[in-house]
Structure formats: C-alpha cells, structure tokens
Amino acid sequence: MKEGNVEYIDADSGRTPSDNEKGTALGPKASYGDLPADPDAGRSEAEKLQIDKRLKWKLDLKLIPWLCLLYLCSFLDRTNIGNAKLDGLTTDLGIGTNAGLYNAALSIFFVSYSLFEPLTNILLKRLRPSIFLPAIMILWGIVMTTMGLCTNAGGLMAARFFLGLAEAGLFPGVNYYLSCWYKRGEFGIRAAIFFSAAAVAGSFGGLLAAAINLMAGLGGKGGWAWIFILEGLATFLIGIVSFWMVHDFPDDAKFLSPDDRARVIRRLKFDNQSSAEHEEFKMEYFWAAVKDWKTWNGAVIYMGADGALYAFSLFLPTIIADLGYTATTACTADSEFIIQQLLTVPPYAAAAIMTITVGYVADRTRQRGLCNIGTSLIGIAGFAMLLGGESPGVQYAGTFLGAVGIYPCVPNTISWASNNIEGVYKRGVALGIIIGWGNLNGVYDRRYKPGHATVLGYMILFLLGGSIVQRLLLARENKKRLAGQRDGWIVGKSEEEIDMLGDKKPDFIYTL
Question: What is the pLDDT of residues 191-205, one digit of tens each?
Fold first, then answer.
C-alpha cells in the first residue's frame, strides 16, 4: 500500500522483497539488523521464487506431519475419558451417577495444564525442541497408560492432574515453534493443519473406542481401561521416535544446509521478525509480554474458543447418547455403544475441513479478525440449537454447527496473536499466557442445559466480542503508524535498539 510517497510492504503479502526494497520494506524506517549473506545473489527473481517455494515445501514435509501426529496423540489422550465413560468407567471406579466427582476428574486436568503452560515456551527455547517435546510426550504416555490401572476415583483424579502437567508444553510449544519458521502470512494455514489433528482425534477416538471395546474383559479389565492402556503405550512409543523426528529452531536445525538456513533467517527478517535468531532470556521480555494489552485481549478471545472446545469434545459422546438412540431386540447394548461412538465421527470430520479452510482463507486475505467473527457466529447458532432444540435431529445438526464454529477459531486466534507479538521470548511468554488462560476455562460446571448456556455466553461475550474489540483497536493503531504518529518511538535509538522493539517498531503493521 502507499502512504504519501512511501510504499509500505505488507509483511503478510507472501512475497520476498526485491533488492531495492531490502532495508526499506514497510517504509524508510525499517531495520533488519545483521543479515546472513544472500545465497541467491545474482539469481533472477523467477529463480528466487522457485527456490523459496522449494524451501517452504521442504519445511512443510519435515515439520508439519510429525507435529500433527504428536497433537493427535495429545488431544486423543486428554479427551478419551469421554469415550471411556460410555464404556463403564464411572461404574467400575465407583463414581456412578455422581456428576460432581466425574466433572472434578475432568476439570483437574485443566488446572495443572493451565498453570504450567506459561513457563513451557521458555523451557522449549532453553532445552531445544528436539529434547523438550519428545520428553514430555514420553511422560504423558506413561501417565496415560497408568490411568488404565486405576481402581478408584482418587487414582483417576491423580492421573488426570499429572496428565495435564505433562501435556502442557505441547500445544503452546508447537505453535510458538512454527511461528519461528514461517512468515506471518504463512503461519495460519500451518497452525490450522496442526490443530485439525484435534478434530481428527475426535473422529479417530470414536472409531478407536468402538474397536477397543471388543477387548472388554480381557485380563479382567473393562473396555475403558484398555482405551487408556493401548493409547498410552502408543503415545510412549511415538515419543521415543520423536527424538529423531523433531527438529530444533532454524539457527540450529540439522536438516538445513547453510544456504537454506540463511534463506529461512533472511525471509523472516524481511517479514519484520527476529524469531529465527538466538536470543538470551531476560526478565524484561517476560514483563513486555505481561504488559502488552494484546496478550490479555488474546487470552479473552481464546477463553471463548477453548472453553467451548473442551465442553464440546469431552461431552460429544454423551450428548449423542442422550439424543434418544436406544437398543432394540435386534441391537445389543454393545452395538448401541459402537453406533453412538460412530455418530461422533461426522461432526469432527466437518470441523477438520472447516479448520483448514479458514486457515487458508485467513492467510490469503490477512483478515483473521473477520474470520473469527464469521466462524464464531456459526458456532453460536449451533449451541443455540443444542440448548433450545427438542428433536434429536435438530440437536445432532447443532453438533455440526458447533464443531465447525469452534475448532477453526482456536488456531486462528493463536495465529492472530502470534502475527502481532514480535520478539523471541516475548511471543513465547505471550502465547503461554494466552493458551494457559484459555485452557483454565475448561474448569466449570458441565451439566448439559446449564453447560450449553455457559458455552453460548462464552462464545458471544469473549470469542465474538473480544475479536471485534481487538480488530477495531489494531486497525486504529495501524492508521496511527501509517500516518507517522509513532515515529517518535525510534528517535535517538541505534539500529540494534530499533530492531529490539519488535512489534513496537513504528513500521510494524498489525495483522487485522
């Protein structure tokens, strides 16, 4: 776009600045600090574009598939308790019809999960992804397996607490990790593909539970116990393999050649990011994240999406069971259980497709706020149908709208926050706070009618309302920066000091 005689290059445009734009992108004030030498100097623009496409494809193949598998395991392990409940968990552990005790077992996961999340991205940066991510996965695989050995409600609650503690580092860690590899206009679709593994886990979880149910009675254990044991063992084995499959940050990733490493760092620098560089931790980075209004507004938006997400994913099997399906003389109780599990698959499949679609659209249009607003309205309609609908058909249709209205907003909100918070540790801390606060909202009364009303309130006030407020505030700030009203922030500062301002640089234009 142009402002007077100065051309401002949108950092989300997806193209690499030409040589005459380097050092002037986003206007004459831009600063890139120390850049590695250009390995493609002397090549034509067409050749550079092809090299850049091949580089992105290489990164996608090396990073995305395995990370999706890790999150599929994570989401499957935290939500499979909903499937286990239908397969005799509450009866065997003496919980019976005590809804408060069962809800406490669900909620205690989110307490440890949320409290530990803000610290995990600092640990990820200091310990390296190739060590930290496999290690926590092995730990939660062990906890998941032992959950199948529980004999009472107290044991189940203890296992759920430690499961939350071990899993806390994965979701914020991977989102932060990916934001250190991709430009702002490329991150959304990758985050959406990564998070779509949650929807796939929902579909796969129902199918897997239906299959594992056939093992009920083996070794004297119920089908619910085998759900925990087998899925926990699979997670443990995948965690071991992850030591060889998870790579470090761009400045230390072994699969990159020196030329490709230079290309990754340069393309991030031209996107007004310094996330690929080494940076020593300082407490000022922590406080910069804590004092940034975008951190807390992002947390409000995310709580609206995440509270709805967990209410939906943990209780969809029970919601469907309550739609009125009953066994007949031609249908045993076991086959009724299997059909109920299979009915959970289509809403999750629709959610996975919608999540990737919204991620693509948000990247292409750079309108993450509008995508959140539009998608949340679909989810609000779905939960209104669940709350007010009387017929099973209306309520089942509501689960589809609820799923496609909730799931896309989670990665889109994280991408939006990541796009607009710059600085290696500042972004990591901010994402930890946002995601941690959002997950803490998995703790609330989950009875059905009051639960649907609570979710509806969360989506209207926090997800929809927060998205509208953030978009308006960011648009106002962009106008001030483009008008030169923030230029005084860099007066008298050195190039290095300007570069360390991150998203406070006057030429940093926020993604709306």
Answer: 999 888 877 777 777
